[in-house]
Predict the 3D structure of the following.
Amino acid sequence: MNTLFRKYVLLFVGISLCLATPILGQTNKLLWKITGNGLEKPSYLYGTIHVRDSRAFKFSDSVMIALENSEVFAIEVHPDSLSKMTSIALTEGLYEKMDSVRQTKPKDSTNEQIYRPELLKYAWKEILSKKEEKKVFVDAYLLGVANSLKKEVLGLESINNQLEVLRNPEESLKRGKQSLPVYAWIEMYESGDLEKMEEVIGKEALEGKVYKDRNIDMANSMDTVMKGGRSLFAAVGSGHLVGKYGIPNLLRKKGYQVEFVPAVFTGYADKYKNDIFLPGWRDFVDKKGAYRIRIPATAQKIPSQAFEYGEQGSSEETMHLYVSLDLSSMTNCLVGYEDYETGFNMDNKEDVFRYLLEETEEDWKAVGEIDTLEYQGFEARERDFIIKGMSKARFRVILRGNRIYRIIYQELTLNGGMANVDDFFNSLEFLPYDTIPLTSKKPEGEDFEVPAFSTYYEFPDSTDNFFAKYIDDLTSYSTRSELSGAAFNTSVYDFKPFYYVAQEDSFLKELKETFVAEEDSIIKERDIVEGGIKKKELVFMESNNHLVKRYRFWLQGGRLFFMHSYTGSEESMGAMDNLYFDSFKWIGDQAEGNEELLKPKFDEWEKALQSSNKENWQEAKLAINYLKFKKEDLPNLFGLLNNSYADDSSYYGIRDLLIDKIFELDSIPPAKLIREAYYMEKLSDDLKSRLLSNLFNYRSKDIEANVQLGMELLKEAPPLDPSSTWSTLTPYSRNPAWIERDKEFLFGLMDKAIYRNTILYLFQDAFQKNIWNRDSLPQETIDNILKYAKVDLDSAKNLLEKEGELFTLGVRPYNYFDLFLVMGKQKIGEEFATYFLGNTLNRYLSSQSLKYLLTYGYPVSDSTIRAHFEEESLRYEAYLPLIKNGLEDRIPESYRSVEEFGKSFINNSIYEDEYSFSTVEVITDTYIRKKRILIMTYQFVGEEEKHLAAAGPFGDELSSTDLEKLKYNYRYEAYEEGNQKQIQEILKSLFEWIEEKE
C-alpha cells in the first residue's frame, strides 16, 4: 500500500540502531575525563548501552558526580529531534527500506553461537536476568537524572546523521566479524572488555558511516560546547568510544587530554533521582483538530495523503498525523485525524470502523478481540496488535461526526514497553469546535448567494429520491468546515414542467412527512419566517449511527431550496450550524414570490399533449405521472380520452396513462363519465380493456358497484381485441361462482381465439373448486369445451412447428392438461403432453409436459428425464413430480443430493428476468421440527455482492414433503464471520412459517 498510514504501520523495531548505535559496553572504563586545551573545568564522556537490563545500571560514584558537576548534559540526538527524525523517516518510507534489508540479509545461526562453550554462560545469564529489567533504557535514565538536576540538554549530532543510518540500511546493519545476541553484549558491557568490543564490531564498520562520520560530528559538537566555557557530560553509545576514529581519539587529536576515570562503588549513585518525564510530557493542542492530548516530546507533523474507505468514500484532505517519541519506553505516540470529503456524509460508521481495523490487520497481527468504547460521548474501537511477530502496538479509532480520529501507541524495539499507553490514550480531550468566517458565493445567473467555508464545490445533479415525482434536475452547493469536518449542503431544485403547488403549507407538510418516513427519529422541529418566506426546519437522529442531521427547506422564486448539515452530534450542532443556515441570502426581487409555482397549468398541459412538436408532447406525457388532479378535473380528463395523440400507435400511450391516472384519484369516477368514455368513438378495444381492468381493481368502499358497472359494459360490448383478456375477465377469477351464472356469455366469447385460453383456464378452476361437476354438465357443454381446447392446442402445434413460439396468441398448452384430467379425458392430455415433450424449440413447455406426465404416472424414458436435469432452467420442474411420487431413484445420481435440490430451488424461486446466477453454494444446513433447511449463498452474473437464502422445508430423503416455494433473501455480508445473525433471522422466519403450516 502506498499511503503513509501503511508506512507508519510497518516495522519500527530497527530504530534502536540509530538511537543508540550498537549496544556496546558499560564497564568501569566507560567514563572519560576531558581536560587541557584551555579548559577551565573538566568535561566528561560516558559510554551507554540501549537496554533495560539491570546489570547495565551499575553506575559508579564517579559517573553521577561527573554528571552533577557538569553544566550541560548531551546525548547523541536531542529527544525532541528524535520525534522529528521519526516524522521524516516515516514520510520517506525509510523504515520500510530498513525492514526490506533486514528480511533479505542472511541471519547468523543463534543456536550455533549459544552452544559455543565461551557463549554458553551468556545464555544462562540472560535467563536469570529476565525479571530484572528496568522501566527505561540506560540513556533515557541518565536523561531523567539530568532533567531532575535541571541540566541543559543538548544533542551532539543533527537528525540528518541519524537519517543517514536509515537511508543506508546496508551500512547500519553491518555486524563485523561476529553477530552476538543481546546478552553477550551486556556481558561485555559489564566486564569492560573494550578491546573485545572493538574486535567484534570490526574495522570495516568502525571506519564506515555509522561510526566514523558520526563520531567526527559528535566530537566537533563537544569541542564547540567546551570551547564556549561550559562543562559537558556527554552520553553516547559505547561503540563510539573504540577504534581509531573513536570519540576519545578524535578529541585527543584536537589537543584535549582524555583519560579514564577509575570507578568507585559505594552506593552514592543510587541517591540521584530519575525523572524521565521532565521536561518531556506536555500538553499538545491541535486547534484545527479541536483536541488536546499529553505527549512525551515535541510533536512532529507527518505529511500524508487521502484515504479511501471502500464504498464509504474518501477523505478529501490529507490525514493530519503527528508523532512524538516516548524515550523512556522507546515507543511512538501517534495522533491524527481526517475528514470526509465535502458533500459526502458518513453513511455507515460500522463500515468505517471495520475498514480501518481490517486495513491495519494487513500489516499487523491482531491480538484479542475488538473493544467497543464510548469515549467522551463518541463511539470508538480499540485493538491490540503485534508488529512483525515481535513488538506491540495499540490502535484506537474514534468517530466524531464526519471526523475520524486515530491514536496509536507503538513499541519501537523488542525491549520497549507499554507502561504509558493508558496515560497517553486517556489524556485525549475533545475541544469545542471554533467558528470561522463564512463567505458568500453567488452562482452565475442566480438570484441568491449560498454560504461557504474554505472548501466549496458546485455541481449539477439529478434526483432519484423521494423528490423525483415532481422535481427535475438540481444543483448542489457543498462546503465543509475545516475545524470540525462537518459537511454542509445547499441544493436548489427545479420543478418539473406543468407542476404546480396547490397550497404552500400543505406542500411543506408533505415534504416533512416524506422525510420522517425516510429518516429515523425526529428530535426537533420548528417553523421559521424570514423575509416573508415560510421555512420548515427538522433535526433527525439516525438510529444506526446515532448521528445528527439538520434540514431546512422552503419555496422561493418558483423553486425548492433545501439546506442540509451533517455534523454528527447535538454537541457539535451549535454556532457553526446556525452560522451556515442563517447565512443564505436571496438577492432577487422578493415580490416575485411563488406566483408561477402556485398557478395551475392545466390549459398549458392539455395544449402540449396535442402538440405536433415531439419534445412538447413527450414532456406533457411525462407530466401525467406527477401532476395532481382533483374531482372537478375529471370531466376534462375523460374528455381528453376522445382526442388523437402522436403516440396512439404505441402500447402504453398517453390515453393509457390518462385512464390509469383517472383511477388513482381519491374520488370515485362517476358512472356516467365512465359509461360515456367506454362508448367513445376513438376508444380502442385495448383502451376499453384497460378501463375495465382499472374499474375492476379500483380499491374503494364501492368496489361492488364498480364491478357491477364493469360487468354491464363487458356484457354489452366486450372488447374484440383486448390487450389483456385476464385483466378484462378478472371478476370471474375472484368469484368462481359467477362462471356458472354467466357460462353462456363466456361460451359466446370462446368464438374469439384471444379469449379462449383464459376462459378455458376459468372452466378448469370451476371444476377444481367443485363449482362444476362434469357429470352434471350437459354433454353439449362438455363437447364444446373439449372442442375449443383441442382447437387451441392444434393451433399451438402448428405455430410451434412454424415459429417455435406459443405465446403470440396467448395460448399456454400446459394450462389445458389439468382441464382434460378433471373432465376425464386424460388420454387427450397425455397425447398433447407427449407431443410437446419432444419439442426442442420451447424448452419450458417441454418441462411442463414432463411434469404433467410424471405427476400422473405416464411413461417417460430415463434419457428424457436426464436431458431435463442437465439443463439448469428445466431441472426444478423435473425434481417436483419425481419427489412427490417417491421416484427419487429415477433422479440422475449426480443430482440426487439435498444440496443439488437446494441449488435448483434457489435458481427457480429467486429468479429475476434481468439477472442470471453465477454461483449458488450451500454453506450449512439445520433442522426445524424435523424439516431440513439449507442455508445458501448466491450471486448474479457481473456482481460481486452475495446474498443469503434458505430453501425448504423438506425431509431427509426428499420424499413426502411440503414443496411449497419458500424463500428468504438476505444480503450476504461476511462469508466466514458476521453472517450468524442473518442466518438466525432466516431460521426464525422459517420456524414461524412452519408453525403456521402445522
User: Anything to note?
Assistant: The chain has 39 helices and 30 strands.
